Amino acid sequence: MESLKIDGDRLWKSLMELARIGATEKGGVKRLALTELDKQGRDLVTSWGRQAGLDVTVDQIGNIFMRRKGRNSLRPPVVSGSHIDTQPTGGKFDGNYGVLAALEVVRTLNDAGIETDAPIEVAIWTNEEGSRFVPVMMGSGVFCGAFSLQHAYEATDIEGKRVRSELEYIGYLGDQTPGDHPIGAYLEAHIEQGPVLEDAEKVIGVVPAVLGLSWYDCEVSGMEAHAGPTPMKLRKDALQVATRIMQEVVEIANRYPPYGRGTVGFVQTFPNSRNVIPGRVNFSVDLRNVSADLLKKMDAELMKFIDSLSSESGLPISLKQVSYYPPCDFHPDCVEAIRGATNALGYSSMDVVSGAGHDAIYAARVAPAGMIFVPCKDGISHNEIEDAQPSHLEAGANVLLHSMLELARR
Amino acid sequence: MESLKIDGDRLWKSLMELARIGATEKGGVKRLALTELDKQGRDLVTSWGRQAGLDVTVDQIGNIFMRRKGRNSLRPPVVSGSHIDTQPTGGKFDGNYGVLAALEVVRTLNDAGIETDAPIEVAIWTNEEGSRFVPVMMGSGVFCGAFSLQHAYEATDIEGKRVRSELEYIGYLGDQTPGDHPIGAYLEAHIEQGPVLEDAEKVIGVVPAVLGLSWYDCEVSGMEAHAGPTPMKLRKDALQVATRIMQEVVEIANRYPPYGRGTVGFVQTFPNSRNVIPGRVNFSVDLRNVSADLLKKMDAELMKFIDSLSSESGLPISLKQVSYYPPCDFHPDCVEAIRGATNALGYSSMDVVSGAGHDAIYAARVAPAGMIFVPCKDGISHNEIEDAQPSHLEAGANVLLHSMLELARR
Q1: Confidence of residue B382 (pLDDT cuts 50, 70, 90)
Q2: Alpha-carbon distances of A173 from A116, A134, A141, rounded to whole Å
Q3: Do A226 and B379 lie within an 8 Å CB cutoff?
Q4: ipTM confidence score
Q5: What number of CA atoms fall less than 13 Å from residue B285's CA on the CB side?
Q6: Is A386 near chain B, with CB under 8 Å?
Q7: Distance from first CA to last CA of chain A, Å, rounded?
Q8: What is the spatial distance between Cα A284 and Cα A279, in angstroms, rounded to a whole number?
Q9: pLDDT in tens, B84-129
Q10: Cβ A119 vs Cβ A77: under 8 Å
């Protein structure tokens, strides 16, 4: 059975054909959710689905499910997919790969005349990127009940257009109630969007979990003063205190390997003038880890450090949590199906946690779920220069094929 | 002779009357160089000078000298003054105090019928602040030959108006060649513009020297990447390297007490997004000290640290010097005259170096010079809330009186 392989060329050609819709001059794709281009992309992929004999249904948030019958129509389907909307300066692979890899699995099963016990479905989730309409992962979020259909409908783009009317306009406002669609298991193939596989020279990333994140806004208040006349010991330099916290954020992450992450990405200094001692510094803190317990410990270390630094320096420091997403473990059945398929196929592999958001995270709230990562060039995504090797994309689709077969067989 | 005192009330009233010209709602003064308000200020002070029997001359850059004859008209005058232009949101004392303290000295000598051996002069230097026309300290700079009259004339304000035509317009384009005006000694009384005297609860600051400064632009180049998917050990976080330099700047200053200063006032992080590891950070470095030798050592320590950090981190770091002003020692005769007068008058005092620029620094290039500091509230200047106590201003003027008498007597 491991001799069954997807057609890598067909997958690559489909990826390149879909990438023509919204193609940018720099080789990327701009295909924002619920635009005319999104419609064209959906039309193309569903036409491919129908050609492959799939039944297409659409729900009220525009999620598309394309179904291949199984022997046992009472079993919930094994679903795989992703999204085809992109960032404004997005790439050809983010999302699109997950949808077309699932379609390639169906085509391969068709060619080989293989009937599965459970049905197989290809899913296209609406507005994963959140570039035009917030919240992100909108389709899968409504599907799993993370927020309401009404909440999603009320989202507006910068021109004031609403999700419901745009769904109607592009012809993808379906009848099915979101979530009223059983899923037996959900798998998603995706480019890694990070540098780990490339760095380790591995082809397949088995994704056991998604990092949780804790976001803070931090403000250090000092005393603005002239750089020349103010001696060092009479200063209240907000930047000198802030930089110690910025370094501690990274130290904390380093104390919680291998999945601890600590980032200060945003910094604002006031008044931000060469010869004035900073009177105030605002900056962001981004802490991540793979378990809620570890993330909580990292949060606690940050707070303790800040308390002690504020006492030591005499400068007020405020720390406000602005976002929290809990970590998500993928289902052992799915993770093991992926690991088993990878090993049987002989691909080099490693476990890679996901640091970014994916539809699979929401899908995991309503069904066993798992993800397959393949390397992307320099770990770059959300960028027109996003790139991936055909052989890696082929390998990922082969792992998806055999994982789905395993799950559809049970 | 120490019983001779200036009239503190008269000095305060003159300060408050001059402060009405360009008064702001918040209690400050906006009297930019070579504007109609500057003309009104010049007219008022020169009218006071003439009432005090002074001969008024103006040079080609608009510097005003008001002369009180001495017994020996062949001796070069003992000059004291400052400027009466202000910052856009300036205070009542910066500059104005130095001019009116010198005028108060003349008035006091007149009242007491004291004739000095050398003539006494009150100087008003053109455009010290540099807010409307660059370079700063323009009048004293041209006077001492730091830059040419032509260079100053070509400076334009944001409306394109030029220095020469504005001088003409306000009626202060004089005939005298700048610098063609001998000075026997130059003293300047000024608010400290720093917190040292207030912190030490001293009334008089004897200023032995002005700090030199070395300004740099520093850039750290890393690799922009997503905060979630990128493990700590695969990061090239420009901010983490930059913050180590920011802290070292302060450490260096702390290793060169008591006059070492180290400040990072300006910081820019790219792309400055919460969930993106900074790919580049640009920031300013401001190092100061009282001797060229110490400043050179501080510069060398910074360069050495950056070289070693760049090797250690593997991140390129560029450091470009953008400004250098050498330290300036005031003349022992002037410093000792000020110290002697302060002690004779019984005021509490300490040595305070000047961290900011003053006309006295340029005057020191052509004559023995010295400065007298008095405390200002919270060390704040260049601000509408700039404030100083009448008793401190009176004390500073008394020190100026007796220092000038000492220098005019020799």
Answers
A1: confident
A2: 30, 18, 16
A3: yes
A4: 0.89
A5: 31
A6: no
A7: 15
A8: 17
A9: 999 998 999 999 999 999 999 999 999 999 999 999 999 999 999 9
A10: yes
User: What CATH code would you report for B8-210+327-409?
Assistant: 3.40.630.10
Low-confidence ranges of chain A (pLDDT < 70): 1-2, 410
Looking up tokens 């160089």 gives B33
Residue A397, classed as helix, strand or coil, is: helix
**Angstrom distance (rounded) from CA A175 to CA A57:** 9
* Helix, strand or coil, per DSSP, at residue A132: coil
Residue B286 host element (H or E)? strand B280-289
Phi, psi of A365 (to 5 degrees): -80, -20
Question: Which pLDDT score is estimated for A410?
Answer: 66
For residues A127 and A33, give the distance between their C-alpha atoms in angstroms, rounded to a whole number: 5
Q: Which of B229, B240, B381 sits opposite A250 (nearest CB)?
A: B240
Q: Are B119 and B77 in contact (CB under 8 A)?
A: yes
Instruction: Give the start-to-end residue ranges of the domains of chain A.
Output: 8-210+327-409, 212-325
Q: Give yes or no on whether A8-210+327-409 and A212-325 have one common fold.
A: no
| Nearest residue, CB atoms, B266 vs list A196, A240, A272 | A272
How many angstroms separate the most distant Cα atoms in chain B? 84
CB A103 within 8 A of CB A211: no
Token digits for B49? 């000078």
Q: Does A282 touch chain B (CB under 8 A)?
A: no
Q: Over 90: is that where the pLDDT of B410 sits?
A: no
Q: Which amino acid is at A114?
A: I
How far apart, in whole angstroms, are the C-alpha atoms of residue B130 and residue B85? 9
Instruction: Please name which of B353, B358, B345 lies closest in space to residue B401, comparing C-alpha atoms.
Output: B345
Nearest chain A Cα to B275, which residue? A265
User: Which chain A residues are closer than 8 Å to B137 by Cβ?
Assistant: none
Which of B239, B259, B277 is the best residue to mutate to test the A interface, defined by the most A CB atoms within 10 Å of its own CB?
Answer: B239
In angstroms, the CA B240 to CA B312 distance is: 13
DSSP string, A167-182: HHHHT---SBPTT-S-
Residue B277 confidence (pLDDT): 95
Q: Which ranges in A64-121 belong to alpha helices (H)?
A: 96-112
CA B149 – CA A152 distance, rounded (Å): 68
Given B239, B379, B381, which is nearest A246 (Cβ)? Answer: B239
Topology of domain A212-325, per CATH? Alpha-Beta Plaits (3.30.70)
> Which run of H or of E encompasses B212?
strand B212-221
pLDDT at residue A401, as a whole number? 98
The two structure tokens encoding residue A52:
């492959």
CB of A400 closer than 8 Å to CB of A80? yes
Token pair 């032995």 is at which residue? B208
For B169-215, the pLDDT digits (tens) are: 999 999 999 999 999 999 999 999 999 999 999 999 999 999 999 99
With a CB cutoff of 8 Å and minimum separation 6, the contacts of B175 are: B58, B59, B60
- Alpha-carbon A140 to chain mean position: 12
Q: Is B105 exposed, middle or buried (0-12, 13-18, 19+ CB in 10 A)?
A: buried
**What's the CA gap between A93 and A104, in Å, rounded?**
15
Report how far residue B240's alpha carbon sits from residue A250's, in angstroms, rounded to the nearest whole number: 8
What is each CA distance from B356 to B131, B213, B249, B368, in whole angstroms? 15, 10, 19, 19
The token pair at A47 is 């036409």
Can you tell me the distance from the alpha carbon of A98 to that of A393, in angstroms, rounded to the nearest whole number? 10
Neighbours of B51 (CB within 10 A): 11
